[in-house]
Here is the input.
Amino acid sequence: MEIDVCPPEQRQPNMSIEGFHADYLKVFYGKLFPHADIFKWMSYGNDGKHPACDQSYFGRREFSFTLDNDIYIRFQSFSNATEMENAIKEKCPFKIDLGAVYSVDPPKRHAYAGNNVFTPVERELVFDIDMSDYDDVRHCCSGADVCSDCWPLMTAAIKVMDTALRDDFGFSHILWVFSGRRGVHCWVCDGRARRLSDEQRSAVADYFRVYKGHENGLKKVSFVGPALHPFLVRSYNDVLKSFFEEDMLPSQSLLANEARYQKILDLIPDESTTSEIRDKWNSNRRSSISKEDVNTARWEQLKHALQSSKQKGLRRCVEEIVFSYTYPRLDIEVSKRMNHLLKAPFCVHPKTGRVCVPIDPRRCDEFDPGKVPTLSELLGELNDMDRVRADSSSGLPAEEWERTSLCRYIRFFRSSFLQPLLKSCKEELEGTYSAKLRQSKDSLGW
Amino acid sequence: MEIVRSNRKSTAAAADSVPALSLYRSAPSLEVRLEEFELYAIDRLRVLKGISDGLSRGKKPDEMEKLVSELWRVNMRHQDANEVMNKDIISHFVLRLVYCRTEDLRKWFLSMETTLFRYRFRLEGSESQRALMTDFNLPYKPLSHAEYEGVKEELSQVARSIGLPHNADSMFFKVHFEEVPELVATRKVFIHKGYAYVAMNQVASLVVTQFRSHLSRALALTNRKWMSSIRDQEKDRLTPIVEAMSSSYLGPDYSQPKESTEISLKDIDQVANSSFPLCMRHLFEKLRETHHLKHGGGCNWGCSSRCRNPSGVGLSLDDALAFWRRMFFDCQVGSERFDKEYAYSIRHNYGKEGKRTDYTPYSCQKIISSTPGTGDHHGCPYRNFSEENLRAALRRMGVGERPMEEVMERVRNRHYQLACTLTFEAVHGTSCDSGVNHPNQYLSLSQRAMQSKVRGSSCPLTNSAVIGDPCVDLGIGDPPTHLPFCRMGNRRRRDKTTSDGRQMDRWAHLPPFLSLVGSRKKMPLTSGDVGRRVNV
Here is the structure.
């Protein structure tokens, strides 16, 4: 089967300007990048006047820049918003990574070398999901490419993770970001999440891990025991089952030809069942001209064969197949350690020129990576605006970004993520402060 | 803890009122004879080493439980019943001193003591478990009936998912999920809105977390005290004991192999073929595969630069090992992935400049316990390969049909290191008494075996070559069915003649390195020492 594998950006109409250019980046950081919002976020309310604010908080956050020619500068820090903004505008980094908040100002770490004073103390709980980890289950693209046929794998991952982070772990300040090319990042920003130790992070990451597989292993997912954990049951019932059957099965044509269905049959540990099904499908090739999609029809046959099987192990197989194909594949190392870096939102991906915009998890079905604004489109919009302004000389809004297609992403970032986050940060600060006051009053009384 | 050379003045008061399991919250003020200081510690060390071996063989929890209680029974007994508790406490605090001194020592000790505590806790009755929870001031209240009703469906589902019987009257505790990381990691608890619902038979996990964090803090504190004062104050008395005990134990480090058998790069294929353990071979083959793909992206670049650079110079064994060390560290091949990993490791270097990044090669235990992700090639093949693939791989190594079955048998019982040992024996036709604990150890044993074969020596591995080798097992805890470990007893008996005559009975059955500890001539043990105290 031939599938158009050309990267989505080439299908865009206005490719007159190339997607990415260092000079464009200067304009982007100068006019569009939401410096103030990033600062507000990274301060977690500590930039206020309240006596409980930790004024050194933002200054202990590690920033790191990737410059042109892959020059990498780690352990930068800024004492305030202006300093950060100026550094970004001056250095014009291809990529900005956000690190942990350390016990001391990161550039001064050498002064404390050797006695473990310089340690990460806070860090968002982060997740990284990368489409290239799905190469064995998608047939439309591979590696860095994504298309509208395989992107829904990310959508399913977001749904599963977002629900579990909220319902199971009780987190509420969760930011999903398009990584600019072929994946998504997740930032969990609740105070509790930021203060998790490495061990606790690993535990959360492992909670989400079902892949025990190995390339040489027969199975990538294996469920034992008479029941599944409630988290897995919910993920299966609410997201994965319908996604697999209604979306992935037809769009990836998972059972349409022998090479593909063999991959699925390989996941079934019983030889007699698989050979029976294989024979049936091989001989039925011509007769299956019914209107019903061949993938769906065969899946129903397979499910029936497995679920009616007398062998106990086989009934779990349906779930195992669905999980193997659709369950989120996390790059687990990123989540396990506090000092791991992750690319900041609103960066521009140097290969695609696309901005790393936030994704609304409640409307992630509507997200299309091919429609994310690119650097060149945004600059085009700015240019058009200048022309309009020159023509009409009427008063346009002062902020130029509000006239570009980046506007709705920045608005979403503010209203759905930043504002609720800062509100609860404020409450938390006030709460700990008054608790401290009460404590000191009590001790005075005695 | 107060330590006095002799004339014990007091034993633990009221041993009967103390629970059998100590939380080691504070050092008791006891006077301890110097010999006991050392002997108790060695006995405990044997327990811990036995646990470490058990873990590295991938023993299952119920096997571990048996192992731990057996190790404890054999090593920690005392003819005086009142002394049992003291021996436990004293040995713990001595080893704290021994193992507080570096990050690696602390990590090992923390992990072994925690494991020991976990199994000892599980052996306690539920009454005394509750008592221990109270001792820890754990503020947990059992779940109320109303709350239980709200989540009972999910609780019973979790119980079924981990194969535990769920009975309605079992008690649950609602705790922050952060407090039971291991139950969260293995999905053994129901989690809702940030709370984990821990069943009574899982409270070990809660208590162990507390124990672990307490001990971790205490070790850091002891380290500070050791560095600032104890080491100097005790430099003629305890310091030599303390330093000998841990360093002689860990022994030669396979990250810095001393013997430099020269292997030039052109020979590396041949060496890989004859001397690499399966895990290394697999990585090597995968590496070569991807290496040949000229357009293999980041991987190609990363691998070839590492592979080819030394080619002009000729690759010494050290280089080869260094090369593999790096492979294990960061080559999780997969082209895009390598790109990423490689970049990360550079940043890592950056971040740790002046501190030196730790490239210590992974031991078998570490390799076995690491679970490779999708498409990764590292990890222990005996554990991760499907049976079919493993058989094929072993056949390629030249393992015959009969040894193959023995290997597979070990694999089925999850004795991955034993499986590797048997493979070694099958491939080299010599026995490997020490067992395989490290891929590099396999490599150097193999090289040694082949050299002595060339020289015509009969059986190199059972002779002096391995004696004094640190990875020699203590020979405890393993049923005699495991052939390689059985033979070791005989060899040790031979050591009798070389060990310190005075202590012969005491030391004869101990592995050779302990004779180091036995030679206490350096330490003034005269009566002038009476009354000198250390506060630990």
Chain A has two domains: 22-210+330-435, 230-326.
